[in-house]
Amino acid sequence: GENVEQHPSTLSVQEGDSAVIKCTYSDSASNYFPWYKQELGKRPQLIIDIRSNVGEKKDQRIAVTLNKTAKHFSLHITETQPEDSAVYFCAASTIKAAGNKLTFGGGTRVLVKP
Amino acid sequence: DAGVTQSPTHLIKTRGQHVTLRCSPISGHKSVSWYQQVLGQGPQFIFQYYEKEERGRGNFPDRFSARQFPNYSSELNVNALLLGDSALYLCASSQQGNSPLHFGNGTRLTVT
Prior knowledge:
- Chain A is an all-beta fold.
- Chain A has strands spanning about 5, 10-15, 20-25, 30-40, 45-50, 55-60, 60-65, 70-75, 85-90, 105, 110-114.
- In chain A, the strands form 2 sheets. In chain A, strands 2, 4, 5, 9, 10 and 11 form a 6-stranded mixed beta sheet that branches. In chain A, strands 1-3-8-7-6 form a 5-stranded antiparallel beta sheet, with no helix packed on it.
- Chain B is mainly β.
- Chain B has strands spanning about 5, 10-15, 20-25, 30-35, 45-50, 55, 65-70, 75-80, 85-95, 100-105, 105-110.
- The N and C termini of chain B lie far apart (about 35 Å).
- The interface between A and B is medium-sized, with 26 and 28 residues.
């Protein structure tokens, strides 16, 4: 089955700096890669996702890049703000006609220091 | 629009008991998935249902079962509870079976 590794497990950045989280996956059939943000005691929230036919996607201060050959993808947050502090999870899945089973990484705890 | 709603929010059970967790998807969403999130880890896939049929099952014992109702709501049942079943149980819904998942706030289950 799919295995997703996520690094680093914790990340501390100064407000205004950039943060980068990296994930690798094992199943070459994976074609969908979402990122979720989970604040303490709250639900995981989808912040951005990318499909395997695209190499990069941006949404304001957030961007995701995908390298299918190397089987890794990354989340980039620019101009970090204190409200970006949370645990971030990457995930991978092979979307089929009737199913979307996500395999999650172990999470990265991001702390943005003011 | 209301998001994914789960009940109860918290639950304390004793080893050996059974538990039923409930989930109502976002209006218009036909697929419901269940995930288990142990403290400090990423969510782990348990089940996915689409149009009331099981479309996927994770690596969980037969003590775990689920179903989806005609109104697309869902129940997760866990029998013979073990201490290791203590976790946050997340329900996620999606428009179709292959659409992005949107999670509810979860049910925090504590087994003593």
